[in-house]
Structures are given as structure tokens and as C-alpha cells.
Amino acid sequence: MGIADKEPVRRVRAALAAAGSASELIVLSDSAGTAAAAAAALKVALGAIVKSLVFLVDDAPVLALVSGDRRCRAEAVAAVLGLAGAVRMADARAVKSTTGFTIGGVAPVGATTGGLPVVIDEALGRFPVVYAAAGHPHCVFATSLADLVGLTGGRVAANIAEPAASDEADPRVI
User: Fold this and answer.
1) Which residues of 55-67 are buried (b: 16+ CB within 10 A; e: fewer)?
2) Digitized pLDDT (tens) for each residue of the chain, 174 residues in all
3) What is the number of structural domains in the chain?
4) CATH number at residue 46
5) Fewest C-beta atoms under 10 Å: which of 3, 46, 153, 167?
6) CB-based contacts of 165: which residues, under 8 Å, 6+ apart?
7) Is residue 121 part of a domain?
8) Residue 168 resides in a domain
9) 81 CB-near residues (< 8 Å, 6+ apart)
């Protein structure tokens, strides 16, 4: 069984098809499990990589889609979604149980638990094409900010992320 045949990747492909998206999966020979690795493998700017970050607001999961060259402001994510409570990044187990994806391959579509509340970093709009994880650390799909909004029903916000310092690589996965 090849990477593109794995169940999480099939879920992403099915979700894209169901939404009428023309996006196609790209299977990479190198891992795209971090924003930096994805940018290097695709030979694109770090900011063109979509980091899919799962947070828990109290115990409610939410998804933040953040430009690869920016650092997410977790409290702002909750505020944009109108949620109150303690905000923390989900651990690997919570990510897997919430989305059905392992860290490094969390896609913005195809979660096993249905749609999560989604907030999208406006900075992704700097790029006509952005790349999001597709269910496996070696799979991505090309899309745009407008398509991400349509695919996820997410809310675009300017204040959920800030530029990462040039000497501070954000190690978060995509």
C-alpha cells in the first residue's frame, strides 16, 4: 500500500472531491511534517505552508490554519471564535482522537469527528498558492486562502498570528 492509499489520505482526497475542489494530492519523497521541511521539499516560501494547529479551549477542540512563517497566538484564536476558557495546544493523543490525523499530517479537511471550528490566518493571502497537509507527513495539497475558507467554513482573522522572529523557527508541524 502506497502513501496515497492510506486511510487518512483517502479521507482528505474524498473531502476535497466532495467539496468540488480541483486540488490534487502531492506525494513528496521527503517528509513535510514541519513547515520548514514542507517549504524545503516544495521549494516555496515558508509563509506559503499552512500549519494546521489544534488547540483545546477548555476541552473543546478548534483548528487554527496559520502561515508557516508566523507564530500562532492561541488566546486570539479562542477570541475570534467567540470562545472563553483556558487555551492550550492539543497533545498528540488529543490531535489524533479529535481529527484522526497524526501530528505532521493534520489536514484542514477530512477530520474523523466532523467539522471543527476553524480560524484562518489572513497572512496566507500573501500567496496565490498555499500548501496544506493531506493526512500524512509526505502528502500535501495546493490550495488558496479563498479555497481554504470554502473548504473549511473557517473565519479569516488578522490577529491570530504574529511574525516569528527571524532567528526563531517555529517548530510546529503542519
Assistant:
1) bbbeeebbbbbbb
2) 789 899 999 999 999 999 999 998 999 998 888 999 999 999 999 999 999 999 999 989 999 999 999 999 999 999 999 999 999 999 999 999 999 999 999 999 999 887 799 999 999 999 999 999 999 999 999 999 999 999 999 999 999 999 987 544 445 555
3) 1
4) 3.90.960.10
5) 167
6) none
7) yes
8) no
9) 57, 62, 117, 119, 155
